[in-house]
Amino acid sequence: MTFPVGDLTLDQLLEIKASIDAEIKTRLQDELSALDQRRAELLALAGIETANIAPAKPAKETRIVAVAKYRDPESGKLWSGKGKRPRWFDVNRADEFLLGA
């Protein structure tokens, strides 16, 4: 389906767009309502109460753990070099605290 838009003003195009967006939103809501109704019918046929269905749990975020890069020779505490600098870490002697050095 083609729609001649070359002769329309910007204001006319924006009005048409707004009415199309509103129609899309209405139709989406209608489709979702129909799906909800059909789901309820299928659950009733299967003998499943909707109250017994637990909502889906959100996926857990995977936490990225930083690898230790520095070690305090006195306490053995480790630091990855990220985040707040520990008190034992001396910037001028950073090479001395490197792991594997």
Descriptive key words:
single chain; 101 residues; mainly alpha; 2 domains; two-stranded antiparallel ribbon; elongated
What does this structure look like?
The protein is mainly alpha-helical. The chain folds into two domains: 10-52; 61-101, no CATH class. The chain is 41% helix and 4% strand. Strand 1 and strand 2 (78-79) form a beta hairpin.
Topology:
Elements: H1 10-46, E1 70-71, E2 78-79, H2 94-97
Antiparallel strand pairs: 1-2
By DSSP (H or I, 4+ residues per run), the number of helices equals 2
**Tally of domains:** 2
Radius of gyration: 31 Å
Task: Tell me about the largest β-sheet.
Answer: 2 strands, antiparallel
Structural category is: mainly alpha
Taken as a percent bin, the fraction of beta residues is under 5%
Helix fraction? 40-55%
Major sheet: order of its strands?
Answer: 1-2
Poorly predicted residue ranges: none
Give the overall form.
elongated
Task: Report mean pLDDT, rounded to a whole number.
Answer: 87
Task: Give the beta-strand count.
Answer: 2
What is the rounded distance between the termini?
A: 71 Å
Q: What's the order of the H and E elements?
A: HEEH
Quick summary:
This protein is mainly alpha-helical and 101 residues long.
